[in-house]
Write a structure and sequence with these properties.
It contains 21 helices and 28 strands. It is α/β, with parallel strands linked by helices and about 700 residues long. Strands 6, 8, 9, 11, 12, 13, 14, 15, 16, 17 and 18 form an eleven-stranded mixed sheet that branches. A five-stranded parallel sheet has the order 2-1-3-4-5, with helices on both faces. A four-stranded antiparallel sheet has the order 19-20-25-24, with no helix packed on it. Helix 4 crosses helix 10, helix 7 crosses helix 8 and helix 19 packs parallel to helix 20.
Length: about 700
């Protein structure tokens, strides 16, 4: 009997030992400590991590405010009591988040060469304390542009450190947790530009939880994947998503099958061999869990996503502001009728219509909207739909006319992603890192910042008037629409982009000349290729700055590679910023794509100024795309002007001679400058043999 009791007690002790909690040491600085968080004992990231992991874990917070990773820094972590306590704790799992304070000018500039060695030594000390421990080091949480030392060095040193941290993880063979990604697009969660609030700490906790458990919620795909989708033809096709760490993911379509193993951060991707145009196909994505491992949470069973009626063809992103968003049902009756007659029986055109949940009209949004805006939840959920009269009628007129001409000419399926927001400035569509380095000043106090049009700022203030937060976000904020509307596309493979925007940047041409190339570069960096980018020159409207702005847009085409510009000045309205003749604009964009992207032998543009020669008291102007020069109405060429050295322009007589335009004026004996269509609302009438209008222009001295 005694032997049985002893055996029973031994079994109890063994069971108790087997249920020993897994110790998690959270090592770090003030972000780990929870500085600035109300009731930090319950709301710091380690405290929230404890609740997520549950009773099988013991999470301890060893954060020290102001601590540096550098041993020669102004407050080395290795000299703090928290470090000694963390070593004594001998965690089974160690998560280290250090480096933010090393961006101080007392530290990185003087001791950067020691950063990697000091980090490796710190890791080694925790392995010595518990040889069986598993260690993760962290890419640092963000430092906002509002930080007082941001432009004076912190911005640059921060990114240098991020690279060094990645090198340390490689050398030390540790896990690497990205604590930047979840907060980088949420500056509203960094009240003092450095320390996350409780909601931000929850994001950190979820990120660490995923790394420790491998649990990322199972198989998930970006919103761009749905029935009726169009996949880009004839180039390697990246398909990516998330699943639980270690899961094996298989992607199948059109006889191809590719597999990937989900990375420790929950991400996976495969690249399919180029597909030819066709369909419909069925795309299957299936995730199979790995075998259970000791210490890992129970995983869900295999998951499978099946997408039906998938076509392969040409995919284009259609973006900008209200003139791109302008719908087919807002056109003149004749233009609407022509487009809708084509929409019938066109299931091989597919539409992905990203509609804002709140339009930026002149209204105060309800207070309930504010939190959703901050969470980047600005767009309605959507999915791919076949083209018919109903779906086309609510779609962009410019984009649909563009897609219709592509489908007719290429005879392949066409997918159009519409993402346009009325009134938005170019700055809202550029990624944060690009602006932080290339145009940081536009980020500061943006609702009072003169780089941004006063109408744009005023509308944002009106829409968010009921907000009580000092860091309230809005679609017009720099970076916002990139973060809410471009980044969620998750690099969905596309052929190129068409763009109709500029009205909200026309007040400051020089600022737009900086922003537009940054926008194109930002998108091309996101898609990791030099996408074709075709855009619309602003139309005619009685706004004084538009003459200069149109000329600037023309010159930008020469500065930005793989671009083309569709002229719209002949389709403007003197009083309406939203002219209703949109079909031709979409077709002019399509001409650029068909010629430059697809190699079709058609004229891509109306006449574009090439050069001018002054002789015998006249200007002889040469154009590209000038075959068949004539006037659109059979009248003499009009709106040319000449100026001498003093720069005063006078109306001039113009005539077409041997493919050039000869311009002269009795008031200008020695012309040195020439301009054309230089009126905000112009009735310029020069066209080429295809009836395409010449761009307005002004020569340089």
């Amino acid at each position: 009997m005694k032997n049985k009791i002893l055996l029973f007690c031994l079994l109890l002790c063994t069971a108790a030992y087997g249920q020993k909690k897994t110790r998690v040491a959270c090592v770090g600085n003030s972000v780990t400590f929870g500085h600035g968080i109300e009731n930090r004992e319950a709301n710091s990231y380690p405290a929230q991590l404890q609740r997520m992991l549950g009773d099988g874990y013991e999470v301890m917070n060893f954060g020290k405010s102001g601590a540096t990773l550098l041993n020669k820094g102004h407050r080395p972590y290795c000299e703090q009591q928290e470090y000694k306590a963390a070593l004594d704790f001998a965690g089974d799992r160690v998560v280290i988040h250090l480096g933010l304070n090393d961006t101080d000018p007392r530290n990185w500039p003087n001791h950067r060469d020691s950063f990697v060695k000091d980090y490796l030594d710190l890791i080694g000390s925790f392995r010595k304390a518990n040889p069986d421990c598993r260690i993760w080091i962290c890419r640092m949480t963000p430092i906002s542009h509002r930080h007082p030392r941001f432009k004076s060095g912190t911005r640059d040193w921060y990114w240098m450190e991020q690279e060094a941290i990645e090198e340390v993880a490689r050398l030390a063979n540790t896990g690497l947790i990205d604590l930047q990604e979840g907060l980088y697009n949420r500056p509203d969660l960094l009240p003092d530009a450095l320390h996350p609030n409780a909601e931000g700490a929850a994001i950190l906790a979820r990120t660490v939880y995923g790394a420790l458990t491998g649990d990322y919620g199972g198989l998930r795909m970006p919103s761009t994947y749905s029935d009726n989708m169009v996949l880009q033809r004839e180039k390697p096709l990246l398909v990516s998503g998330t699943a639980n760490a270690g899961d094996r993911v298989a992607v199948r379509i059109a006889g191809q099958e590719k597999e990937a193993v989900t990375a420790p951060n929950g991400k996976w991707s495969v690249t399919l061999a180029p597909l030819q145009a066709g369909g419909p196909y069925e795309l299957t994505v299936e995730a199979t869990p790995v075998l259970e491992k000791k210490g890992r949470r129970k995983r869900p069973a295999s998951a499978k996503l099946v997408y039906k009626e998938v076509l392969v063809g040409e995919v284009w992103l259609c973006s900008g502001q209200s003139n791109m968003a302008f719908r087919v049902d807002e056109l003149t009756a004749d233009q609407r009728g022509k487009l809708l007659s084509y929409a019938d029986g066109q299931p091989r055109i597919r539409l992905f219509n990203m509609q804002p949940r709140w339009y930026t009209n002149a209204v105060e949004w309800d207070v309930s909207v504010m939190d959703s805006l901050n969470r980047l939840q600005y767009y309605h959920d959507t999915q791919w739909t076949p083209c018919n009269r109903q779906t086309a009628d609510r779609f962009s007129a410019v984009a649909f006319a563009f897609g219709r001409m592509l489908a007719d000419s290429l005879q392949v399926p066409v997918g159009l992603i519409l993402n346009a927001v009325g009134g938005s400035g170019a700055e809202a569509w550029i990624d944060r890192k690009t602006l932080e380095f290339e145009f940081a000043d536009i980020l500061y106090d943006w609702t009072r910042n003169d780089f941004i049009q006063d109408w744009v700022r005023g509308r944002a203030v009106l829409n968010t008037k009921k907000s009580s937060g000092k860091l309230q976000r809005h679609p017009y904020e720099p970076c916002y629409l990139y973060e809410a509307g471009i980044q969620p596309l998750q690099q969905y493979p596309i052929r190129g982009a068409i763009w109709y925007q500029g009205e909200s940047n026309a007040h400051n041409i020089e600022t737009h000349e900086r922003l537009f190339p940054l926008l194109v570069e930002s998108w091309r960096r996101n898609w990791a290729e030099e996408l074709p980018f075709y855009y619309v020159q602003l139309s005619s409207l009685n706004r004084p700055s538009w003459t200069w702005f149109r000329n600037s847009q023309r010159e930008l085409m020469e500065k930005v590679p793989n671009c083309g510009m569709a002229v719209s000045s002949d389709r403007g309205d003197s009083l309406d910023v939203h002219p209703k003749r949109k079909r031709e604009i979409g077709e002019r964009l399509a001409r650029w794509a068909l010629n430059k992207t697809y190699g079709h032998a058609l004229t891509p543009s109306g006449p574009l100024f090439r050069s001018v020669e002054f002789k015998d008291g006249a200007a002889y102007v040469s154009f590209d795309y000038a075959d068949g020069l004539h006037t659109s109405d059979g009248q003499p060429v009009r709106t040319f002007e000449l100026a001498g050295h003093e720069g005063l322009f006078y109306p001039a007589k113009a005539e077409i001679i041997d493919g050039k335009v000869r311009v002269c004026s009795g008031k200008v004996a020695n012309p040195r400058l020439v301009r054309y269509g230089w009126q905000p609302f112009t009735r310029a009438n020069l066209v080429n043999g295809d009836g395409l209008p010449a761009s307005t222009f002004r020569t340089k001295p």
